[in-house]
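Input/output pair, single chain:
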Amino acid sequence: MKRTIRMMISAVLIFTARFVTAEITLEQLGTYSAGIFNGSAAEIAAYDPATQRLFVANGAQARIDVLDISNPESPSLHASIDVTPYGADPTSVDVYNGMVAVAIVAEAKTDAGTVALFDADGMPLTHVAVGALPDMLAFTPNGKKIIVANEGEPSDDYTVDPEGSISIINLSRGLRRISVETAHFRRYNGKEDRLREKGVRIFGPNASAAQDFEPEYITVSDDSRTAYVTLQENNAIAVVDIKQARVTDIIPLGFKQHLFWRNAFDASDRDNTINIRPWQVRGMYLPDGIASYTAYGKTFLITANEGDSRDYDGFSEEERVEDITLHPYFLSLYPDIQEKENLGRLKTTAFPPSGKTTASDGTDVFHHIYSFGARSFSIWTEDGRLVYDSGSEFEEITASFFPANFNSNNEENNSFDNRSDDKGPEPENVVLGVINGHTYAFIGLERMGGIMIYDVTNPFTPHFSDYVTNRNFDGNPEEGTAGGLAPEGILFIPANQSPTGVPLLVVSNEVSGTTTLYAVIEPYN
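Output:
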């Protein structure tokens, strides 16, 4: 295998040389470890500049770890906030003017969840009920409201499927008069076929639109009026009027055509090589993280196109391409497509948006192949028009930096090519930061690890700046010597709020249970 990899390296290096610009980069300062491997001990972080404290969601211990980062080179545990009085474990945290908001899932995730509010010292202020499985929350930029994405995942046997929803917590009249409104999806019940025709995935067993929509991640417009919420499994974005607490639109994201060279990807974990090439595949974007910013007077959305499937004991959409029946015409064009070294190992869906018919013997016949995730980040207009996609760059760049560990998983080293049949490097989250008038996107790769940095000042012509990871491919993940594994949360701290006066990036690593602080460096200034 090493000989094959070496043969690929020179071509990959030549192909990716154009990416290395290093306009800004990251310099590791310090790391705090919760000491728990693969237990979701560091998921999402939020920062309070007044106290110079980080608040980190530690799901493994059902608490918020409060870290003192007054010296970013030596972050330390200041205190912890126990969330068990309010539910099972925290999923998200945000801070505004010393108020800490925490989303907490119920003991039974299909029951209503809770948002609890604390001061920066961890003292409880109040709490309110929200929808089932509150998976992410965010203060609006003006701090008057908290927006909560209630994912509403089904039970593992799929016998209970709560509705997804968005809770809007109003703080404008003070904590004594706090109120909660819910933006439902019920107005789309009975319109499922129409939504499917537009490209929205609605496919849960016996699920209404309201049950099938699963809000994942939130971004709020700069004017605090509109929230944009990813509906990951549905391959769509919900638009929410915050004042009216109303979902005003569902935007389908369409598909990425991997047949083009600019959208090439590696599809097999059984070919023992780096093989980034075009395939006759339609990639479903299925974004997780989302961010927004204003450019040229317009709002633009940035998505991290992770991909996700529904895979429960009671229902699963996952199939391997080698196990589905392809239409004879498709096979006539690509006769070897279902071999393991081609697309045979690629995970696809048994419930595509279109392109499946039923033969006379009851067999499902597939006219197209769909993949989970787009292995990229994308920029969209606020009404869902795609203006940029990073194409195949993530796999090309990681292949050039770490050819012997390309498409590794996040739980073990020596796992070359392990994730090629799934979602590749798996971009999980994205956060934006403004430095000297330039807007940069920082995108975390959940499987391969590390942070991709792009200058997105012009949303139509972004360009790569650097790829930085502190993963140690010679270390032992379970012993904590492999560096940061599975970046889940990313937080940008601007220079005017930073303890050092230099912009910081905070990365919460779910598998390694570590929170790492980086200085954002401009090497040529």
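The first strand starts at residue 25 and ends at 33. The two ends are 43 Å apart (CA to CA).
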